[in-house]
Amino acid sequence: MVRTLGVMISATLGAITAMVVAAVAAPRQWEEAGGVIAPPLVQQALRTEGEVARGGGFALAEHGAAALSLRGNAGAWSMPLRFRAGECVALLAGSEGRVRVQQAAIQGEFRARDVIAHDAMAVGGNGGGVLAHVQWCEREAVTRVAVVSGEAVISGSRLAAQHTLRWAVYRGPWATVGGPAGLTRGRLRAESLEALGDDLSVQLAERVLPRARRREVEIPITHGAARLLPADAETYAALIRVSVANGNPQVNPRVDPTVIPGAPWTTGLPVNFASVRASVGVDLSPAIHDPVTDLGLNDHRRVLAVVHRGRLGDACTGVALVRSRFGYRPQVQAIQGDGTARDLPERENVAFDEQCPVQGPTVYLAPLRDHDRWTLHLLRRSTP
Description:
2 domains; 24 strands
């Protein structure tokens, strides 16, 4: 995903997800100047990244000069960082002289202040330049800690102490910045994002899935049950065909039978499924289980939904699947026709399927470890 204010790469790395953004990549001119970072380089980087912050809804609140506490060739500097309720903060830091800033972070108040913690809420690197820039938001008034780490430009230099750290703090209201969905600098920790609330995923989805493209209704997908659209024997039979249950040839995947107002495609499945099961004509297991499929070699996946996009009011209705967890990729695959799985294109936490023509029902899959809530949206055709 490319933004005008930076390059953001979404990725899930174990417990940490998120948004790795390139910071200022000023030329490495100090390598040609005896390992000294000249003040004009840092000032230019502060101005450039300051414009990035202002463009994102922040305003300069305070700035200053300091020095890192060095141990050998490396060290850190920290200060308390107070957030008002519903406020976002951007921290910029660069060093003049013989020390180069490596990272800037915003982390918990009770973490060590001479090192960037593994569970810092947000960490920003220097992007190969002279400045690090990190951003974070808080819903409630709270005190965090700003930590900046650095190292000598030339390893082993006895002159590393000759440096000046220049820092600046920009602040902006949550609504103006757009909350975490509007941040453009920093690697944001997934668990910290989740603590801020589920509506972040909604905000993020609306950035890439405008209401003008969606039909009015959204259809929920709960964990442990597959959604069928339209809810009838054809889509149910497709679910049966892909289902597995601990190697048992008899399967009985759970289906969500709830009817969504305004979505006629969710009707047609009686609560006991008696008529639909009879029409499918298969010997079902007496025990109902979560809808799961195997792509081969025990590559098990969660079944989110089975949708016949050619029978939803259009010859090729588009589908968008929105994952409720902020900062995590959707990672949705689709099985259609010959049974080959294909990865769906995605933006932020939304996966899209607008491939045409439609060949029967499409089965949508997520990783088996995914226990999140999802919503399914039917899309209007894009206008040329």
